[in-house]
Amino acid sequence: MANTDMDEPTGDRDFVASLEKGLAVIEAFDASRPRLTLTDVAKLTGITRAAARRYLRTLTKLNYADFDGRYFSLSPRILRLGYAYLSSTSLSLRLQPFLEKISQETGESSSAAVLDGDDIVYIARSATRRIMSIGLGVGSRLPAYCTSLGRAILAYQTPAEIEAYLERVKLEPKTPKTLTQKSDLRAALEAARQQGYAMVSEELEFGLQSIAVPLIQKNDKITIALNISAQAARVSAQEMEERFLPTLREASEALRYTF
Amino acid sequence: MANTDMDEPTGDRDFVASLEKGLAVIEAFDASRPRLTLTDVAKLTGITRAAARRYLRTLTKLNYADFDGRYFSLSPRILRLGYAYLSSTSLSLRLQPFLEKISQETGESSSAAVLDGDDIVYIARSATRRIMSIGLGVGSRLPAYCTSLGRAILAYQTPAEIEAYLERVKLEPKTPKTLTQKSDLRAALEAARQQGYAMVSEELEFGLQSIAVPLIQKNDKITIALNISAQAARVSAQEMEERFLPTLREASEALRYTF
DNA sequence: CATGTGTGTTCGCATTGCGAACATTGATAA
DNA sequence: TTATCAATGTTCGCAATGCGAACACACATG
After folding, report:
1. Could you read off the pLDDT of B158-210 as tens digits, one per residue?
2. What is the mean pLDDT of residues B87-110?
3. Does B129 lie in the same domain as B55?
4. Is residue A40 in a domain?
5. What is the number of H-type helices and E-type strands within chain B?
6. Which backbone phi and psi does B20 adopt, to 5 degrees?
7. DSSP secondary structure string, A36-48?
8. Residue B11 burial (CB < 10 Å; 0-12/13-18/19+)?
9. What is the number of structural domains in chain B?
10. Does residue A193 belong to any structural domain of this protein?
11. Whole-angstrom Cα distance, residue B194 to residue A189?
């Protein structure tokens, strides 16, 4: 995920380009690239090898990264950065009891996520059982277009924001059921907005079904949603709507205006 | 948490001081300080107001922070930084199934944590029910000295590392039962090392009891531990040892050398 | 209304971080 | 085994970036 917009001169004397590059270096690491040489990081971020070397050595010196003589890897201290956000908003802390209650009442997994760019990020989760092949802990991110959480949030953005999103998003099929036509996604978002919830059946992953509602924050802002997920083979869409939607709405209502 | 060691000239031309300051700015935010002015950040980090202003504006421009005209706050994008670590190590992903199995078998909450400095950081968790007053999601941190996870890891550090840790740690009492004598903690760590597990009863929080075992990583390194927590009123220490320890040991054995 | 304090901003300048050139290492071909 | 080449890591002269003292502004207080 090379951050090529670093090349754009901002002409802004208040901008600290070194911080931008440093953060890009951190984000160069991911599941497919857990250990990187300085040349790897230079290629992924578009900065020179000399610069990559300086940032990596700085991160190592500050204990945010480890070095084994050739490869760099991130260290647990990096979690302080994400924790700074989670603790500062207390999102997890305040949402968790509601998600656990939902899980307990429905016997299914429940999550909350926030929209960040074109992705949703999980900020709290209560899992009764494992129904997905990928682990979804706090901090995990998924594309918004094919998740009920993403659609429940996107549906409440301004028409201009929705159109801008539809224009730039690439609707990659995750399953044969994934909506890949932008007109279809636009209609699904409009429907979600009308009915006050979003339902996604096997668009993200085969066998997975989920329903989500938006959480109305202060100033009627909406960037958070709550959901319930279940296996499509065990729970039909109609059951989700009849059994789970009231529970979600109750939780959302209790949390209205508290964020 | 002012980072005053930034004032030390490192004389190191490979060190990027701007990155150090930028990361310190991010870490200035926490639960007690979710929204800060640039003057607040300057005070907390020890940098000038002008510098604080540049870093905060840079973070805002990169969408890592928000600005309302006077106050700055972190944005969800910051979670990408912690996610870079979690996804790169796949720790949560690989540990989660084991913790869920432990939770299912024992009916109690199970967690995994990694040692980072003098704290433990939660990296995976399976909670059957809420038994603590504080939420403990991934990224949460607790002091190592009064947690079973912390002791299960500390017990396996080198004697020099343990002595260095005992010298610098401040054993603040969290409850009347917290060990506050360093000789007592040293003995508890030695006992944990001998018996292969650590047990903590109501030292972190009243009514909370937990048992943890270390996870032996590659090269016989130990920086991760697994635990089970329960309410002291419901489960005695002896029950934990008899019923829960085998389950933990089994999981730890299955994961031996895989990290 | 004047003064003092706290907070935010500017711009001349020095230090910091840059990257071209060099050094080292490892792979490959003869 | 040796020479050559490519890839990767490192250095240091230098200019651009980030610094902070001084200034500007806003608000509180007497």
Report:
1. 999 999 999 999 999 999 999 999 999 999 999 999 999 999 999 998 889 99
2. 84
3. no
4. yes
5. 10, 8
6. -55, -45
7. B-HHHHHHHHT--
8. exposed
9. 2
10. yes
11. 59
Same domain, A102 and A141: yes
In chain A the first and final C-alpha atoms are separated, in Å, by 32
Report how far residue A249's alpha carbon sits from residue A242's, in angstroms, rounded to the nearest whole number.
12
CA–CA min distance B221, chain A (Å) = 14
Distance CA B154, CA B222 (A): 9
Structure-block tokens of residue A36 = 């990187």
Long-range contacts of A234-239 (CB under 8 A, 24+ apart): A235/A108, A235/A209, A237/A199, A237/A201, A237/A209
Residue B83 lies in a domain: no
- The residue of chain B nearest to residue A90, with distances taken between CA atoms, is B31
The C1' atom of C9 and the CA atom of A12 lie apart, in whole Å, by 14
- What radius of gyration, in Å, describes the C-alpha atoms of chain B? 20
**A26/B22 Cβ within 8 A:** no
Contact between A84 and B26 under an 8 Å Cβ cutoff? The reply is yes
Chain C positions under 7 Å from a protein CB? 6-12, 16-21
Flag whether the pTM goes above 0.95: no
The token pair that represents A16 in the structure block = 């600290």
Q: Is the CB of B48 under 7 A from strand D?
A: yes
Specify the CATH number for the domain of residue B173. Answer: 3.30.450.40
Helices and strands of chain A, counted as H and E runs: 10, 8
Do B180 and B110 reside in the same domain of the chain? yes
Q: How many residues does chain A have?
A: 259
**Tens of pLDDT along B243-257?**
999 999 999 999 998
Which nucleotide C1' is nearest A22 CA?
A: C17
Q: Note down the domain range covering B102.
A: 90-255
Task: Report CA-CA distances (Å) from A207 to A130, A202, B93.
Answer: 12, 6, 20
Nearest CA in chain B to A15: B58
- Check if residue B186 sits with its Cβ under 7 angstroms from strand D: no
Which two tokens mark B88?
């790169």
